[in-house]
Design goal:
Bound molecules: zinc ion
Distance between the termini: 66 Å
Strand content: 15-25%
Strand order of the largest sheet: 3-2-1-4-13-14-15-16
Number of domains: 2
Shape: globular
CATH class of the largest domain: Alpha Beta
CATH topology of the largest domain: TIM Barrel
């Protein structure tokens, strides 16, 4: 390859900083990413890339940090339509008196379509390129994500009680298997079993889920140890703490994504770390519902992979992974009683590569490395809010606001350009949201 004979590729993005989140945590200055057919084919200094390649499109982001697209490892996307419905309540009265009645009254395919569209618009505008969802009608969520060009792992939800999606646990599983088959060949969509929680799913369906997850080689995504009530209920109904019960069923494997884990004993952490299972930490949701505190630094010290999620917008109340990183770093210190706990770099890894590992997609995404998909988020750090700049990672985690996210690519496709959504019609989303608001508030 010489200057006279450059390789033809799709796009070159020049960035002021490239924060790779590779194993060595390299941060490059004045470098560029070369992209072809959705993949990162080269990362080098801007001059070298310019000499080596001829691109159809060249984007210069001289004030920006390029980071791996953020991975929201726990959401209920379409619950965005319930944002602000029943605030300031503990988990069980929030669920039983507000969310579950609203769900049984309103949730249908159109609700999921509009709610997921709203959620995805917000996620892209805050730099997220992949999300792990758990809700009814996962086929609708998957279709919207795929059309919008975002990666999704959709949860094949399982509950003991009937809903609009299924009547009993066998039917939940059958419906889930159909969704799994339907999206088998969609390269942006993955599936995971999503038994809701130990208190809402009994042993028979959990046994069945374990067998099927092994067969299909897909993860299991479940809320665990979210509140002290859940643990007491588990002791009362099953004679053991929920985590212990899941372990007896054989669910603690590298395929398990345990969401929340806000109440853990030291021996539970030690045992959990040996199983290779993952923790999904949702600090803002835990704080808003006063559920408890996940001992993140202790888990990390025990080599547990901890990823980050927002939870649904009804308990957060946004899907902002930049804010979630800041909360994780701050709360992690408060809980550990140690200012060096959950560093900015750790929080950024939790929101990127750790999420990809938990979801089993770290070969594809989660870091900016040659051979991986071009899932990239650009953040303009040349704003007064992030100046002066001594350390770009510190600015991103502790000072930046999601409105500084200007451009987003997923699989090489531009989803956000200069803060304008490229694959979604924002006016249509706002109109659909307004019409649902009117219905729900009547
Ligand atoms: Zn949740």
């Amino acid at each position: 390859m010489t200057l006279d004979n450059p390789l033809q590729i799709d796009e070159i993005i020049h960035g002021r900083w490239i924060i790779t989140i590779n194993a060595q945590r390299h941060i490059h200055e004045n470098h560029a990413i070369a992209i072809d057919q959705g993949k990162i084919v080269d990362i080098d200094n801007s001059n070298a890339i310019q000499g080596r390649y001829q691109a159809h499109k060249v984007t210069r982001l001289d004030d920006h940090a390029l980071i791996p697209g953020l991975i929201n490892a726990h959401t209920h996307a379409s619950m965005s339509l319930m944002r602000g419905l029943g605030d300031d309540l503990p988990l069980m009265s929030w669920l039983q008196d507000h969310i579950w009645p609203a769900e049984s009254k309103w949730v249908n395919r159109d609700f999921i379509r509009q709610g997921t569209g709203l959620a995805i618009a917000e996620m892209i505008r805050s730099g997220t390129t992949a999300f792990n969802d758990m809700y009814f009608f996962p086929d609708v969520t998957a279709a919207i994500a795929s059309t919008a060009g975002l990666r999704a792992t959709v949860g094949l939800i399982v509950l003991d009680f009937p809903s609009v999606w299924a009547n009993d646990w066998q039917e939940y599983i059958d419906m889930g298997l159909t969704v799994h088959d339907q999206f088998r060949s969609d390269h942006l969509v993955n599936t995971a079993f999503a038994p809701h929680a130990p208190y809402s799913v009994s042993n028979d369906p959990l046994h069945r889920v374990r067998v099927l997850a092994d067969e299909l080689e897909i993860p299991i995504h479940i809320h665990v140890h979210e509140t002290q009530d859940e643990i007491e209920q588990g002791l009362q109904n099953y004679g053991s703490r929920p985590l212990h019960r899941l372990d007896e069923i054989g669910l603690l494997t590298p395929g398990l994504l345990a969401v929340h884990m806000a109440h853990l004993q030291d021996e539970e952490i030690e045992h959990f770390s040996k199983t290779g299972a993952h923790v999904i930490h949702c600090p803002q949701s835990n704080m808003k519902l006063a559920s408890g505190f996940c001992p993140v630094q202790k888990l990390i010290d025990n080599s547990v992979n901890v990823a980050l999620g927002t939870d649904g917008a009804a308990s957060n109340n946004d899907l902002d992974m930049l804010a979630e990183m800041q909360s994780a770093a701050m709360l992690g210190k408060a809980v550990a009683g140690d200012a060096s706990a959950v560093s900015a770099e750790t929080a950024l890894a939790m929101a990127t590569i750790n999420g990809a590992r938990a979801l089993g997609i770290s070969e594809v995404t989660g870091s900016l490395e040659i051979g991986k998909a071009a899932d990239i988020t650009a953040i303009n750090l040349n704003e007064p809010e992030t100046q002066p700049l001594y350390n770009p990672v510190s600015q991103i985690v502790y000072a930046a606001d999601r409105r500084q996210v200007t451009d987003v690519w997923c699989n090489g496709n531009r989803l956000l350009q200069g803060r304008i959504l490229q694959t979604l019609d924002i006016d249509e989303i706002k109109a659909g949201t307004a019409s649902w608001q009117q219905k729900i508030s009547m």
